[in-house]
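Hi Q.,

Before the meeting this afternoon, I wanted you to have the iron/sulfur cluster prediction in hand. No need to reply - just skim if you have a minute. The sequence and ligand are here:
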Amino acid sequence: MVPLLLALAAAAIVIGVVVHVGHTLADELRPPRAPNGAGTDGIGAAAERRRFLRLIGISAVGAVPATILPVALRTHGDVAATAEEPARGPGGRVRQWTMIIDLRFCDGCQSQGTPPRCTTACIEGHLAPEPMEWIQVFEQELPGGGTQFIPTPCLQCQNPPCVNVCPVGATFSTPEGVVLIDQERCIGCRICMAACPYDRRFFNWSDPPVPPEALLADYSPDHQVPATRGTVMKCDMCPDLARAGTLPYCIQACPNDAIYYGDLEEDIATNGRSVVAVSKFLTDNQAYQLKEHLGTKPRVYYVAGHGQAVGRDPYTTGRLPTEWPWLRRVEGARVWNR
Ligand code: SF4
Ligand code: SF4
Ligand code: SF4
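Predicted structure with the ligand bound:
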């Protein structure tokens, strides 16, 4: 009897030690729980999230040039550290993110012989499910003949119809002027999709393919990983990358440096190669916004063109179709039609 009791006691001690070590390890490995957009999980969680994003950025967009730091954006006032704390520029003013897409330099990646790289990099950086193209490159006929390519992310409207109609506040504007979606609050009613005049929102109709690296992600509306069935997703303008001093995936991947990212408050933007004064660049090049007459006030600006600055012949039409790597990489992955 005594040996039996001793054996049971020893077994209990061993189990206790194993459980304790397991919990400690799990605590070490588990990424801090992200907020649903309303709460806060502290600087450590945000740092962890950025570390992960850099990780997937490097692995997923490994084929693109090394991350180009928008140095001018980092030199003053320096950036804020948390997803809840907006980035601030000189004088402590909150950054107001903006994008400029210079169509004179966009050839739809015809010269590369690849599908549009901005689209591909965004898909891989966000593990976006097929058939979502958060930045979709449309080919449009020009009035005088030939075509132009128009990369189209979410336009980050400052008067966003999508936000105005959401019945549960799942989509919202941040202090940095970015429109985000909290998939943990989204009820899948898709009213926002009907309200968006640019067709820039996408619905997870089925269980989206979730690559193994997505399982490590600590969910945040800033990057929307992992995708969840029955919720809406879209371009989030990569504010977490901007706060970390890195350009969005689409901009890093563009071989022609056609896309700029910047801060309206400090009046600077960069495509990773050069820095421009936003107001002067927009004025000098007569920039425009899509469907300006609707009063949505997009934060994404365009400079007219058809790839002429990189030698594109507008009569060379067509671009290669977008590809998603998930069916090859995720067993049982499924896709759906919009
Ligand atoms: S914006 Fe750049 S990456 Fe995107 S299609 Fe145009 S040239 Fe290619
Ligand atoms: S482009 Fe559409 S989804 Fe994006 S902010 Fe404007 S209305 Fe909303
Ligand atoms: S800004 Fe970010 S989310 Fe938007 S298209 Fe570019 S990579 Fe995708």
